[in-house]
Amino acid sequence: MKHRVVITGIGVLSASGGCSSSFWEALREGNHGFRLLESVDRQLLRFQYGAEIPSFCPENHFPPQVVTTLDRASQLAVVSARQAWEMSGLTLDEADREKTAVITGTGTGGIGSHDKGAFALYGEGRTRAHPLSVPMIMANAPTSQICMDLGLKGPSYSVVTACSSANNAIGQAFWLVREGIVDCAVTGGSEAPFSYLHLKGWEAMRVIAPDLCRPFSAERKGMMLGEGAAMLVLETLEKAQQRDATILAEVVGYGCSSDASHLTSPDVNGAARAMEAALADAGLADNKRAVGYVNAHGTGTQVNDAMETRAIRQVFGDHADQLAVSSTKSMHGHALGASSALEAVATVLALKNGILPPTANYTTPDPACDLDVIPNQAREQVVDYAVSNAFAFGGLNAVLVFRRWSDEEQPKP
Amino acid sequence: MTDSRPDTRLTDKVIAIVAEVMQISPDSITKTSTFEELGIDSLGGLTIIGELEDTFHLQIPNEVALQINDIPQAVACLAEHMNPADTAPSPPPDNLSA
Question: H or E stretch including A49?
């Protein structure tokens, strides 16, 4: 038996807000979170800005003996998972714990710990690494730390597909719940990309904008990195209704694809196939007009935004002219493996509140991006279905479809 | 007889760097070769530009670097961004000498 899957908890840590309500307020107002980077020596970088969380103090969340054993990516993951778990109101007995999955995504895992350890050895001449180097660096650490922190013992793993990691993680968790393999799941993504090594890699790729991220604008000059984490609690509709949980939205579709063409240059057909697969999974293959909003991958690079516009037109045809499309990366930055988790939360809150977040920092239309991109001002609009896109380096694409929840429109069991 | 004019020396050096970075024979590269002709994609192009920056100790702006698709463009870009007298690469810092 297939189950309907609903979202009953969300948690967020981002430069745009330290919880889901402040995050939503920033997005609704079109306020971006870019600021001068503090965690690295900016004199050594050609770009100076990023969406760095300004006030996250891990000591406020973890005891001293624990805090140094967690890479920042794990710290952000655990704190956002606690937020989501608390919002869901779930209290599990031992049997339920074993039927709760934790599936999270990250692009770079503990790269900050890797960078720090490498500098100690190669730069400072030390001969001993931190004994927890390996478990702090490993990409599955955020998932493992959430499992331990919340005591969840069901099927759990991490998904690493660069910028689509979180969408793939959420999609996998959605399928596990839908198929009845688990009752609940904590899922999302986390990323802490502000390490010197990593930033120099992005600098060498020359895709970082110097000032602001302006997706779909003619003047766009690239992406802006962000850090953060977002987690969602998924559960079967039956379970949520039995315990009278507040339902935020429903997950209805997941699709993914591989470009199999180029490491960094996206392929319009690969992106389109992921969208088609997600819409088919949602039962919307013949009813695409039901979709009213697309939270775009929208990185702000010349190549992505033009490609994504073509892919949306290819999938939706004439309906593309009726679609509202925005890139919230213009505000929370591109948090890589966590980005699509932040965007999933943005999409869920857009459906719930009947307000579509804007593409901030928008200046001049680009004929190559001729979609309704909700420039700069949020829009009051009730939408029934929304799509959230994520396209990764390596050509790995993942797309989710969400449905607005209305208690009045749903039959009680 | 070898042409020792600055432009030619610079072109020869660029060709040598492209050959070394991309692991291809310098004999397969001409003064007018495009990166596409040499089987070099956008990532390879960025790798070459980065190596040219390190070799000649200069910074090429992103919007310029991303438009370089052949040997003449690379040479012209270097000539524009470096000191006119400096047509040969500087020696490496002492601590990097073999």
Answer: strand A49-50
CB contact under 8 A, A206 and B41: no
Q: How far apart are the first and last CA of chain A?
A: 15
Contact A220, A300 (CB under 8 A): yes
Closest residue by Cα to residue A234 from A171, A187, A166, A283: A187
DSSP run (H or E) holding A177: helix A165-178
pLDDT digits (tens, 9 = 90+) for A66-105: 999 999 999 999 999 999 999 999 998 877 899 999 999 9
Contact A228, A15 (CB under 8 A): yes
* Helix (H/G/I), strand (E/B), else coil: A24: helix
Residue B91: the pLDDT is: 46
DSSP helix/strand/coil, A401: strand
Sequence-distant (6+) residues with CB within 8 A of A163 are A107, A297, A299, A334, A336, A337, A339, A340, A390, A391, A392, A393
Nearest chain A Cα to B59, which residue? A46
A-chain residues within 8 Å CB-CB of B42?
264-265
Interface test with B, best of A206, A219, A302 (most B CBs within 10 A): A206
> Is A206 near chain B, with CB under 8 Å?
yes
Distance CA A224, CA A36 (A): 12
pLDDT tens per residue across span B30-72? 999 999 999 999 889 999 999 999 999 999 999 899 999 999 9
Q: What pTM, to 2 d.p., does this model score?
A: 0.92
Asked if A206's CB is within 8 angstroms of B42's CB, the reply is no
A163 catalytic, yes or no? Answer: yes
Specify whether the CB–CB gap between A28 and A354 falls below 8 A. Answer: no
Are A8 and A87 in contact by the 8 Å Cβ rule? The answer is yes
Buried b (16+ CB within 10 A) or exposed e, A279-306: bebbebeeebebbbbbbbbbbbbbebbb
* B65 contacts A206? CB cut-off 8 A: yes
